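Hi L.,

You mentioned the student needs an example of a multi-chain input paired with its predicted structure. This one should do, with 1183 residues in total across all chains.
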Amino acid sequence: MRISRRLIVALVALTLALALAAPAVADAASAGGLCDEDTQRGSTPSDFALDACFDGETMHIRNQIKFPIAYEGTGDVGVAKRTSTDFGLTAMATRTQDEPRRILPGDTVHIPVGAGSARFLLRGSNSTTFYFVAKVIETYFPVPTKNAKEFYDAFAGMVSELSAGFDQYRDCLVGASFLDQLGCRATFLGDATFAVSRAGFKTISAIELKEIAKKALGAIIGSYELASWVDGQPKQVLDVIKSPTLKLAQLSAATTTITPVAVPTADAGGAAPVILVLDTSTSMTEDDGNGRVKIEGAKSALLDFVRGVESQTPIGLRTYPDPTVDNCSAGALQFPVAARDPGSMAARIRTITAEGDTPTSAAMLAAADDLRDGGYTSGTMILVSDGESNCESTPCETAKEIEASGITLQTIAIGFQISEKGQEELECIAEAFDGVYVDADDNERLAEVLDRVSRPIVDLGLDYPDEVTAEVGDDGGYVTVKATITNSGGQEARNVKARLRFDDGAPGVAAPVRALGNLGAQQSRVVEWRFRPSVLLVDKVVRFTVLLRSENSESDTDATGAVRVRDTTGAGEAGPILKRSGRLVILGDSYSSGEGSHDYLAGTDEGNNRCHRSRHTYLFDAFKLPDENLLACSGAVTRDIASSHDGYRIKSQSAQLVARLSADERIAAVAMSLGGNDVGFGTLAAACITTTKPADGCDKQISTETGPRSPEDFLAAIADVTQQLNDAYVEIHSALNSEDNVRRQGVTPIMVVGYPLVTPQSKYRRSCLNALTLSAGELAYLVQFIHTLNGHVEAAVAQARSQSGVPVYYVENTESAFQPDHSLCDREPYGVGPTGIRAPGAGGDPIRRAVQELFHPNRDGYKALTRAIIRWSLGPEAKAAMADLKTRTAVEDKPLEWNSSDVDLGQIDSGFRPQLQGGTSYPLTLSGFAPNAQVVVELHSRAVTLAIAQSDGTGRLRTSVPVPRHLPSGKHTLKIAGAVPGGRPKLIVIPVELAGGSKPLGVRVMLFGAIGCWLLAVAGLAVAFPRRLHGAPE
Amino acid sequence: MIRVLLIGACLGLTLGACASSEPREPDAQARYEAVVPGGAKVSVLPGSPEYCTALARSRPLREVGAAMDALALSPGSAPEELRLRRAADALREIGGRIKQRSEDFTTAATTLGQLADRGFTDRAAVTAVSTSLSILGKTVQGACGFPVG
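Structure written out for the whole complex:
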């Protein structure tokens, strides 16, 4: 491990060294191929990381290294053009990521430079991780010839998730112990697995995608040490890349007023200069309406401004007019544009007086020159006036002239108790400079406005949808959060960064932090994030916060948003396996009958029938099923599929299924849950909640009707249900997929639903466990029990499908349908807890019902199960099931292939036990039944329904009874149940002996046991004495 | 007879070699291989409780990271599932030695077992194992003072 890691680090270091050394070596030739370098205005430093060349008008920068790099151009720079050489998958996908000034490897940008100064620097790209991840896995994803754009988007979405996973993984590792870090790794692996599987490449088949996903994931895992190292060491990498900056000197010939030597440039980290232009005409000596002279209020506001403005901001002050020269003169420069000096500036401000006219045009022209004299070609002009110009020239026209002269002025015009005409004039000036006009009614307002313009004020507005539909497998389901970031202050906001953060850490989003660079006064910028809430967030609200930070803002700004995630799960949105011709039938036990959701159907909540069938059960409502299609029964065990329910006097579920088919019902699919009662889950649940001391908990010992059992035994016994489940599925398949039925509507699938976990899985409040009377150990045991049970159910499904040819499929996602936010310990539980059992005064029927309902889903729980099943139906497992279904045929025991016997089972002498052969069909003729009545033929003691027939109009029954091959050999009883005229039950019992059936389970186990022991013995000998067996030398 | 004795001696030597390949009882500054790439070393503070040493020395626990990688790549891989279950057993066993907060060990063990059963395609299992290991890490950190990454 240590050697491997060192090797990786060494390789990375070598790669980086080569990558970063390349430009230095190539420096001499950097101009070569890029342009003819004009060094009059500046040259590319030898340590500039990328190939760069300035030809006098355009800066050319080419990325010849192996990582994306971003550049920043400040000063007199125009809109860049780009030429690219790399059109591979990684490059194309990276281009879908929003980062305007990124230069991908092989790209060259051409940035026009005006006559002014300009400066370029390089920085790390936000897309580095994205690019790296994409590069690692791109070879596994061949770009299709059609729908390439769609493919790039899908690939980019996946890579975004993966790179976000990398970022989170790296963050997660910081300050964590090795145990924490294992947790981080699990999260990373889970996220990566889901990102790859969720990408939804339509152009790749499911099987190919699975293989690709495996390879891609392998590449990711194999390289994430590398990736985390590269990303984890940004300082070393970026310091090398960032350090040199490229400066271009001012072009002195073009601007004669500027001294070529002292050419101050707006430092990349510095602030834009401000020239204040204050109207000091006579009208400023008037009262502001609040008892204060306007000029005094203005001076006070200016003093505050000088004190409050950032120390790096160069400021100058011009007042107009200067009555000592002329009442319409351009005024006096009170202090030139220079670094802030509060003491001397304040002293100067205090000397200002007001007298004269309002020569706004002349003052603006002079202010522009003041800036130029300070060495600037751009800056902010704050113009404060209380009246319209009354000297010659039109200020609005003058503003346009200044704008056209090459100086760029951000202008904030403040109307101080100004007339309507004056306001129009200032508005026109502001518009000419593409600036803003602000009204100040009095001194207080003026101070407030000046305060705002003395600093950056970054505001944030969010635009996002209120809700989104969670999508599975297909496109859509994306939320776009649009943040409009506005600097409403008068100063440039430096190094603005916006970060999108989810309150609960989910879902992931690519590039959560966006670097916006500097945001000028009164400028706005829009940033968009796009994310796709997982279907696991259905019915939840995704809350997020956008945080804004800039280097020179007084405080951070944030705004919050919330998007509700809606479900897709209307029946109409279900996958094809649920939308086959016909209607669904629900079989099985209480988790299918609707136990726990109340409103039980008539006749199913009585003494002799507590099947507790409810229309609130899963799929029922969504698919508008008729009551007759709900055949599941609370308490049902595997035996009840093939035989009548012992206690409730109802027919076997397969018989009921056949009856539905006989009624010409077309069945689309069967959904069911089964096995839980066979393994005593009800007994376990009751045992867990009835013990109050941890020492007596169900994780220590379980009380059953036959005495205490150890939890280990209880768990181990689950394995026994596998064969019974297999038989039950075979039985349903036999009833469902007879040749007739298959001919009518093809092979009908059986979907077996995993049991949902109603308790919390891991995170819990102790107070909740106390309320459930569960210790942590009991909870862990219950969770383990459900996992184990579902595991065996899934295994039985697989066995029935592969070995018995049953078209049965396991719906696994129902197990976690209530997790993690709707367990019994959550605010909105989807299950029924023990509250009803402990209700004061509970007893009799209410308490019996509460016990029966314990740990079952409630109505919301069944809705959640519906959603889970529908989601499953849209996923790859259901698609594979549909493909598998096409390969299936009708049941093997086809009537036509059966042997026929002449022995009429209805004509056998009493006292004689006939021997029946498995795989043989026997005629049955009897009379004495009520006319047109249903007669059921069953074989006991392991009850199996053999036939359901109908007597004719005279009460005579003539049918055939097929005896399946898979029934155990030995003595059985044939029971023929119907009714005599008048309705009284008629039961005929015929003792029979079955030959040619299967060996009883016990015999099978003994046989396998014996063979297993023999094999083990041989293996043991081989292990113990290998050398002797192979005659090794001594 | 001589053959049997020789085989016995070889077996004894082999077992001895296996046993000696286990990390020794750590001294104050003892260090082990990093369990997690880019991450923290595994060593214990002098005088820390015995279970800290047991955690640090547990080979199954140190193999969890590699087992998770392999299981993510090959869902259903029996050897990797077994490695996770061994780690779960180790956690249960260590948790069984302490009186307080032993449920954090049990929970982490249970979730590792679930991960072995369900694999990385089960979001709930992944979240559970991640959370429980993190909780366990924080539970023992005060006493064990494991180095942090």
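You could point out the following to them. The two ends of chain A are 37 Å apart (CA to CA). The longest strand of chain A covers residues 108-124.

Best wishes,
N.
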